[in-house]
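Known limitations

Files may contain more than one protein. Parsers should not assume a single record per file. Below, a two-record file is shown to illustrate correct handling: read the sequence, read the token line, then continue until end of file.
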Amino acid sequence: MASEPSTQSRVMFQAGDKTEEPAHRKLGKLTVKYNRKDLQRRLDIEEWIDGQLHLLFDCEEEEIPELEIDIDELLELTGEGQRTRLQELLQECEKPKEVRNDFINGLLYRIKGLRKMSGPLKK
């Protein structure tokens, strides 16, 4: 059934004054650009950590104890603070201390030069 033109809704647009400059938005607030190389390096480290935790705990992913290694948290600490924090996190691991220390040394080596990701990275 066709409706009558008088009952249809109409939308009307008003043309703005062409002499005014358009309002500009700051694009920096809308998008954030991260350094792709740093993101890839961080992803590689996180995948390495995941694989090492499987070896340290000799179990499947679902069976690994609640353990979260926060790279940004480690980056805020000094060298000895990083080592101490990782030792605290790995207390439940039943592997010998040497094996745990190998993991810790490997992780500390990999995160050297990495930057925190709490905000946008700048080149």
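...continuing to the second record:
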Amino acid sequence: MSDESPVSLACAVLTVSDTRSAGDDTSGNLLAQNLARAGHQCVRRDIVKDNVYQIRRILSDWIADPEVQVILTTGGTGFSHRDYTPAAVLPLLDREIPGFGELFRQISHTEIGSSTIQSRAFAGSANQTLIFCLPGSNNACETAWEQILREQLDSRHRPCNFATHFKNREEDN
């Protein structure tokens, strides 16, 4: 870590669930709290049913919003017939970040063993907005945050991080 001031990112958290409500959205709360502790702002937050078109509607609005730099989704990335997050989000991406899903499953293997192959966690970017799609469990969200996202959204992390891309964009304007 360097001594420079960290870049504060404008983030959004979307919980994809047919059963969660604002009162029991523990994984969404965990992500929003971790963002705040890291000095980022949670500028948008929502819960949506696991429906391809409802997910796309919200994400498309956030992707088009210049105030949103990073989107974290939680839920809908499993392998059941009701998990639609990949089908909803992948067509919206301009570019995928394959290493995120690969690393997440590698780390998860130490926690849940071979069950990690049923995780379809992934990441990418759309309209210069980073999107990270995480499983819905608190444990998976905590693992993704502590092992990957905390550092990659910290502009002081070396040798590279995603936050620096936003700092460079601001300097270009």
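Parsers that stop after the first record will miss the second one. For reference, the second record is described as follows. The chain has a mean pLDDT of 93.
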